Amino acid sequence: MAIINLREYYPWYAHDELVEIPDIIAEELIADRRYERAFKRRTIYNGMTAEQFIMAWVKSEFITPKRLLFGANNIYYDLLKGGEQP
């Protein structure tokens, strides 16, 4: 028989409440806690949640251009030269 503290599992317990439970239930509680921690680790990538990472990837792949094109447009020079603005 294992002894657990209910305050670790239920946030509404303000004080320690020790309960004796069968070993098989204690093993399941430990396995569930490990699963929750592993899930939380998988959803974080580079300090971002999965949704933030996917949005950053979509923005970098589809929204921002791959190549920036800069044209030579010196308006002051064109005005002095007498040319027309593009």
Describe this protein's structure.
It is a single chain. The chain has 86 residues and is of the alpha+beta class. The chain has one domain (2-81). The chain is 49% helix and 14% strand. The chain contains 3 helices and 4 strands. A two-stranded antiparallel ribbon has the order 1-2. The chain has a two-stranded antiparallel sheet with strand order 3-4. The longest helix has 21 residues, at 23-43. The mean pLDDT is 83.
Task: Produce a short descriptive summary.
The protein contains three helices and four strands, in the order ββαββαα.
Output the keywords.
single chain, 86 residues, alpha+beta, two-stranded antiparallel sheet, 4 strands, 49% helix
Largest sheet: 2 strands, antiparallel
User: Order of SSEs, N→C?
Assistant: EEHEEHH
Count of discrete domains: 1
Placed side by side, the strands forming the largest sheet appear as 1-2
Whole-angstrom Rg: 30 Å
Question: What's the number of extended β-strand segments?
Answer: 4
Task: Indicate the topology.
Elements: E1 2-5, E2 18-21, H1 23-43, E3 44-45, E4 48-49, H2 50-63, H3 75-81
Antiparallel strand pairs: 1-2, 3-4
